[in-house]
Each structure stands twice: as structure tokens, then as C-alpha cells.
Design brief:
Number of strands: 12
GO molecular function, one term: riboflavin synthase activity
Number of helices: 3
InterPro entries: ATP_synth_asu-like_sf, Lumazine-bd, Lumazine-bd_dom, Riboflavin_synthase-like_b-brl
Protein name: Riboflavin synthase
Catalytic activity: 2 6,7-dimethyl-8-(1-D-ribityl)lumazine + H(+) = 5-amino-6-(D-ribitylamino)uracil + riboflavin
Strand order of the largest sheet: 1-2-5-4-3-6
Pathway: Cofactor biosynthesis; riboflavin biosynthesis; riboflavin from 2-hydroxy-3-oxobutyl phosphate and 5-amino-6-(D-ribitylamino)uracil: step 2/2
CATH architecture of the largest domain: Beta Barrel
Order of helices and strands: EEEEEHEEEEEEHEH
């Protein structure tokens, strides 16, 4: 489990294209400290497994399913990425519960800078809109953010200088893709209410 608090801005140093997958080599001095084979590291919000680790770099394999369902397929050598290690049991939950399982991709629509923060407008896929509410939590490229405004096909977030400086959202421009993970609690609530409604309907018959 992750919290959406990005530990560092890493970099893709090599990309190897395989038959039905891709292998990335990534640089991240913070997240590789103590890393070993089999560990999990979130890359732009996608939970990947460490295959190899040497110095301040690690490699991770990305299957075709993940490439199709996330924006990792557009990454190239030199691309900057958000990196986060799993949270330790008993540690502070600085953001919110993040699984590292991307629900869909979207794109940056607009940026509105101000003196001390920046409002970013992001598209919202129709099948995810019901999970996104004003002042709720959402994960964008692995970053835990609070929704400022939620429309039928978009939402906005307000970014402080720290987020702009230390994550990929300081670099993204309109048209750039991002990974989205909605609040898992909302999905569980929907499932439980749906099961309850089905059960009550069956009983009524």
C-alpha cells in the first residue's frame, strides 16, 4: 500500500522493448536505498516490482496489460517519474490509501497559475466520474490530491509550490497523459450498496 506522498522525482535511464512487455531502468537514489529484488515501488502511481537493483538505479518489467491501461507506455529515456516506496506498517498516512492499481488515464486540460499555487484541470473518464467528489481524494500520477471541483467530465486540483517542484505535475502541459486511481473506499462502498440492493430486491420477491 502507498499513500500518494511522492518521495522523489526519478528518471527513466533505459527502455527495453520485449515481445509483450517492456523493461524500464529507473534512477532514484531515495527509493533504491535498501531496495532488493521483489520489492514494490510506485512509478507514476503504478505499483511495479523491482527486478534488479544496482547503485541508485533499478529495473522493473511492465506487462502489456499495464502498458495498455496506464500512461507508462509513453515513457522514454529521460522521462521524469514520480517514485514512492510502500508505506511501512505503523507509519503516518500522509496522503490517503493508494493501491498502485491505475483505474484509467486522463489528460491535463488546462493550467491556471497564481502567485502561490496553480489550478490544474484534468479530464475525467465517464466510468470514473461517480467516484470523484468535491473535496474528496484522488491519485494523479501517484500523487495524493484533494479535488477542488468535480464536473461530469473533468476535475480540478490546486497544487502548492512543493508539489509543483517535486513531482511531474510541475512539468505536465495541456495534452499530456496522467494516470488516475480513484479512492478505493468509494469503490467498496458502491459494491456493498449494490450487493445490499440486490439482496433486498431478491427478498422482496
Amino acid at each position: 500500500m502507498f499513500t500518494g506522498i511522492v518521495e522523489e522525482l526519478g528518471e527513466i535511464t533505459a527502455v527495453e522493448t520485449l515481445d509483450d512487455a517492456c523493461r524500464f531502468r529507473l534512477r532514484g537514489p531515495v527509493v533504491t536505498d535498501g531496495a532488493k529484488h521483489g520489492d514494490s515501488i510506485a512509478v507514476n502511481g503504478v505499483c511495479l516490482t523491482v527486478v534488479d537493483h544496482e547503485g541508485d538505479e533499478f529495473t522493473a518489467d511492465v506487462m502489456a496489460e499495464t502498458l495498455d491501461r496506464s500512461s507508462l507506455g509513453v515513457l522514454a529515456v529521460g522521462s521524469r517519474v514520480n517514485l514512492e516506496r510502500p508505506t511501512a506498517v505503523g507509519a503516518r498516512l500522509g496522503g490517503h490509501i493508494v493501491q498502485g492499481h491505475v483505474d484509467g488515464t486522463a489528460e491535463v486540460l488546462e493550467r491556471k497559475p497564481s502567485e502561490n499555487w496553480e489550478i490544474v484541470k484534468i479530464s475525467l473518464p465517464a466510468d470514473l466520474s461517480r467516484y470523484v467528489v468535491e473535496k474528496g481524494s484522488i491519485t494523479v500520477d501517484g500523487i495524493s490530491l484533494t479535488v477542488v471541483d468535480a464536473g461530469p467530465d473533468y476535475f480540478t486540483v490546486s497544487l502548492i509550490p512543493t508539489t509543483l517542484a517535486l513531482t511531474t505535475l510541475g512539468l505536465k502541459q495541456p495534452g499530456d497523459p496522467v494516470n488516475l486511481e480513484v479512492d478505493v473506499i468509494a469503490k467498496y462502498v458502491e459494491r456493498m450498496l449494490g450487493d445490499r440492493a440486490s439482496s433486498e430486491g431478491a427478498t422482496a420477491k
